[in-house]
Each structure stands twice: as structure tokens, then as C-alpha cells.
Amino acid sequence: MEDDAPTATKKIKPDRIDGQGPPKAGNSAGGDECLDYIGRLPDEVLGTIISLLPTKAGARTQAVSRRWRPLWRAAPLNLGAGYDLTGQDHKRIVFVSKILADHRGPARRFLLPYIRLRDRYAKIDGWLRSRALDGLQEIQFTYEIEDPLLPYPLPPSALRFAPTLCAAEFGPCDFPTEMAPLLFPCLKRLILYGVAISQDALHNLLSGCLVLESLQLEYNIGVACVRISSSTLRSICFSGPSRWERGQHNPTMFEELAIEDAPRLERLLPHDLSNGPVIIRVMRAPKLEILGMLSSGIAILELETIVFQKMIALSLTTSMRTLKVLALDSAGPNLNSVVDFLRCFPCLQKLYVMSQPNPDMTNKLSYDPLDPLECLETHLQQVIVNNYWGMGPDVDFAKFIILNAKVLKKMVFVTVDSNSGR
Asked: Model's pTM, two decimal places?
């Protein structure tokens, strides 16, 4: 007769990866052992996760377990050497040197924001020449300007990553006066902020960017005219230097931006036009959708066949139907000027107006239904008025839009008090 006693069931322990020790006592619930699901992932996946962490957190993963110790050194290096790494400047120098010595690469990002130059040029150049940074995809390099009268040279070694860079930001620094032509076959985003660079060097740099999509040129010194032809650019943001930039009382002012041929350009974003340029010419941008902030600081604005002079349209016989979003800095606001823009951009959907108070402005324009504006009749859906004071010109402007924009869904007034947080 067979034994009726129940057969003891054998506990099946979850599989563990080689090198992974047994779970510690007390880490069970209801008899089931806790599973280390992350620890089960392949090394390649864990390396990718580590490379996405901030530098300090990525390095600390070496303490997780014996298996994790070699992963950080083998994962793509993400070296962010800002003040989140350490708030002490001298320690930052030590940490960067140690990380580059310990990590064998490959490198993904090297972010070196606001480094103090002092007597460290050779050390910084050595970092940039480190084999650990071979194949770098993203770089951010900016000096902290402690004495604006001194030179702050960009080490030429910072440009050795041209073949692999996908994103680059260079802040206050001096580009080499003589630059050999370089090709950037992978670079999609470029920011130049407060750099000193010659006009020829800038054009050589841009001509080597074969797939560039986003370009930001702000407060740079030494460039009077920028001419751009690019089959890949989608976004351009720009402004000129102030008259006191980097201790120069009379720097070369940014006079003109000329977009000669940009078949994929969608966003053209002037910023801080008090510093230039005073002339903006767009010869060909058939997909331009977003434009502004425009102001009377632009002496001449040419958009293909449309010409504005200090925010006044010289001809209303042509239009640009691709534009969907427009931002204007307008004294008053000046209703006549805004209506001219609406007439030139008949398919506009969103309008942003930065109002500059002018109590003497008269906004008594009447809407003629026999001469309708296509923009107001069928397209304009949202209007935002910033710096709204509620004076007569503000109120008249708001009334005109509300009464005549047939498909308007939303109109927002940002008052002076809400701007200041009171």
C-alpha cells in the first residue's frame, strides 16, 4: 500500500546571476525571496542605465555589489563636472582628473560649465586630450570670467571631437584666430554664447556642420554679419553683444543676419534685439512657422517679398502663409502695426504681444468687413498680451481683437503685478 503521507515539496530558489550572493535574512515576505530584477539585466543594459545617471550617482553604483564594480568603468562616460559634482572648485579639478584617469571610456558627454581658468590651461587641455574622451558625443565648455580684460583661450583640443559630436555648447571663451576647416558630420545642436570669434572663423565653423538642426548665437563678439545657408537647420536663436561685453567698450556690433537659403527652417527667434542685429533678411525659408520676438530695434526686416521698417510694413501686397506663431514687442501696443503683421501673415494662429506702455497712443482702428483680414476671420485662435497695464491703448487693442477675431478661443492678459509675482 502506498504511503498516503504528503510528499515534501522542494523549494525552488530563484535563479541568481553568477557573482550575485544569496539574499540576506529578513529580506523575504511570506516565504518568498525578494528578486533583484535590475540585477538580472545584462551588463550592456546596466551600463546604459549607469551612463544616463549624473556623474556622482553613476560612480557610486560601484558600491552596489561585487558584480557592479566594473560596470561604471565600462559604461559610456557621462562626466558632468559642474557644481553639482562638488561645490568646491579645487575639488572639482581633482575629481575630473581622477575620473578621467580611472575610466577607460568610451565617452558620451563631457560637461565643463564655468571652469575657472587661472593657471589651469595645460590641465584643461590634458583633460580634453584624454583617451577616455575619444568618441565624445556631447560637450559643454564655458569659462567663469573672473577678469574680463584677460584672454580666455579655448584649447584647440576641444575641437578634436568634430567627427563624433552631436551637440556642442561653447560659452565665454576665445576661439582660435586661425581655424583650419573642420567637418562636423554628426552635429545637430550648436550653442555659441559670449564667445569671441572672427567672422571668417564662424562661417567656416558653420559650413562644416553638415546636419545641423538647431543653432543659438547669443552675445558673441567679433561678428558683424552672419550669412546662413543650410539644408538642415530647423531653429535659429540669436542676439548681439552688449557694448560692455567682456570688458570691451566698443565691440564689433552684430549688424546683420541673412538667411540666404534654409528650406527646412521652422523657427527664427531674435532675442534681446537691443544688442542687434538691426537688419534681418530672410531670402528663402519656405517652412518658417514661428517668428519673434520682433521689435522696433530692427531697422529693416525682410521676409522674402515682405519688408518692414521699424515695425511698419512698407508694402501690404504680399504675404507669408506658412507663419503660425508670431511674437511682437510693441509700444502701446500699436494696433495699426499689429494689424499690418496680421495682414502679412494671414494664417497666423497664435500671437504674443509684449506691450510697452504709451498712454499717448491712439488705437481707434475700425474693422471694415468689406476688407476682411483672413487671419481674423478664419485662423487666429490665441492671443497673449504681456505687461498689460489696462490703460486706454491696452483696452482698445483688446477690444479690437475680441470683437473681430471670429475663431478666437483664448486671450490671456499678463499684468504687471503677475509679472513681478505680487
From this structure: 0.83
